[in-house]
Design brief:
Blueprint (H helix, E strand, L loop, with lengths): L1 E3 L5 H6 L5 E6 L14 H20 L4 E4 L21 H16 L5 E5 L5 H18 L3 E2 L2 H5 L9 H9 L8 H11 L23 H8 L13 H24 L24
Parallel strand pairs: 1-3, 2-3, 2-4, 4-5
Length: about 280
């Protein structure tokens, strides 16, 4: 069963079987996504992936209650020069997640999942650090697998057409064919037809952690990658692939089986990407 927590009164939450309740929190920023996509892309993706992954999880955990809530529309990034961005500092994000998890921990729920469609490493690492902090206090009740998923640590069988496209048009980091396709699948009415005429803007993976380099490459457009290569069919495959990966990671956490491999982004141990907690 999937329930929006907004629809429950406190006594209904109190009566939940806490060992068989999973609270899924979505958090993603409002942020520019080029001339062809809305600023809510990360929010829409997060919401969509949560819904699809819960449907998949219910097949195995039919006696569980999956709680959802409105997406928290905040996140960390450093993408200056465009109207439409609402970003918060990494430390504020960390504190926001800490406070949210702390509040939910008081409900005595044993499985709290944080999902984000925003792939910025510092954003994901802040969430992971917040989960780690809460877990020290409450013994592994919080889990955020998105850093591992975006780092390709969660393996599922991908469709051949998707694999071919990923190889041919790699380094598609922001509002390129991947996110354009995802949005064509989620709600094509929110995708401007001008995506078909957007230029290719190429960035290497190692450049993505240097905001000034990114800003210089994407100025006047706002995307990096290949928007015109997007399609609804690819979006259907991408969204299902993501939901399957999220399902796989959450399943491991619910069962407490081999889930620690999904706890961190591949860049988690790089000091300058971590939260400066004492600053």
């Amino acid at each position: 069963m999937s329930v929006n927590v907004l629809e429950l009164c406190w006594t209904e939450i109190e009566k939940l079987h806490k060992e068989k309740t999973v609270m899924v929190i979505g958090i993603a920023p409002i942020e520019q996504h080029g001339r062809h996509l809305p600023v809510g892309v990360d929010v829409y993706e997060t919401e969509h992936w949560i819904k699809k992954s819960i449907i998949k999880l219910q097949e195995r955990f039919s006696d569980y209650t999956f709680l959802t809530m409105p997406i928290i529309p905040f996140g960390n990034a450093n993408m200056k020069g465009f109207p439409g961005n609402i970003h918060i500092s990494q430390k504020l994000l960390y504190n926001l997640v800490i406070e949210t998890l702390s509040s939910i921990s008081e409900w005595d729920i044993k499985n709290i999942i944080v999902i984000s469609g925003h792939a910025e490493p510092k954003h994901l690492i802040a969430i992971e650090e917040a989960c780690a902090c809460i877990n020290k206090k409450f013994k592994d009740i919080a889990f955020s697998p998105m850093g591992a998923i975006f780092s390709e640590k969660v393996k599922v069988k991908e469709k051949n057409t998707l694999m071919d496209k990923l190889k041919e048009y790699c380094n598609d980091f922001h509002a390129g064919w991947v996110e354009t396709s995802c949005m064509l699948s989620i709600n094509k009415d929110l995708v401007n037809e001008n995506y078909k005429s957007q230029p290719d803007i190429e960035l290497q993976e190692k450049e993505m952690i240097f905001p000034k380099k990114v800003a210089e490459k994407i100025k006047k457009y706002g995307h990096s990658g290949y928007p015109k290569e997007g399609s609804k069919d690819l979006g259907d495959a991408l969204n299902d692939d993501m939901a399957e990966k999220i399902k796989t990671a959450i399943e491991a956490f619910i069962l407490r089986e081999n889930y620690k491999q999904y706890e961190h982004h591949e860049l988690y141990k790089i000091p300058f990407l971590r939260v400066k907690i004492w600053s």
